[in-house]
Design brief:
mainly beta; Deoxyuridine 5'-Triphosphate Nucleotidohydrolase, Chain A; 11 strands
């Protein structure tokens, strides 16, 4: 599949890498901070980090921005909305809203890999109102109902 990308920042491709797969079998492309100056995020704060590009996600697909596991596990840095969705009709610059859930300041520097981008198929649904749903073993047992193992 081809994904059309528009470079919005002059830094992209020169000082900052455009999205790329770090390994042959990586599911997501690494996305980097396309910023002139460092941005420090204090504990409990969030910031919108520009990525310097826009993309044309094909119809029937969505771009999904995920946190980088290393930033989350080492520093408590994650996407503010857990998963950022890029709809197929969005043509603006990709931004990553990042929250510092850690206990120390975290500084984002130019070119830092801050998220990963996965392009995945999506299915539109037609809602059909009903008074009953078929039964399952789990039923309406919610959060934590399947145990901790």
């Amino acid at each position: 599949m081809q994904l059309k990308i528009k470079f919005i920042s002059l830094l992209l491709g020169d000082k900052v890498k455009p999205p790329y797969y770090a390994t042959e079998q990586a599911a997501g492309m690494d996305v980097s901070a396309c910023i002139e100056d460092d941005i420090t995020i204090h504990p409990g704060e969030r910031a919108k980090i520009p990525c310097g590009f826009a993309i044309a996600v094909p119809q029937g697909y969505a771009g999904m921005l995920y946190a980088r596991s290393g930033l989350a596990s080492k520093f408590g840095i994650a996407l503010s909305n857990a998963v950022g969705i890029i709809d197929s009709d969005y043509r603006g610059e990709v931004l990553c809203a990042i929250t510092n859930y850690g206990d120390s300041d975290f500084t984002v520097k130019q070119g830092d890999r801050i998220a990963q981008l996965v392009i995945a198929p999506v299915q539109k649904c037609i809602l059909c109102k009903t008074d009953e749903l078929f039964e399952t073993e789990r039923g309406d047992n919610g959060f934590g109902s399947t145990g901790r193992k």
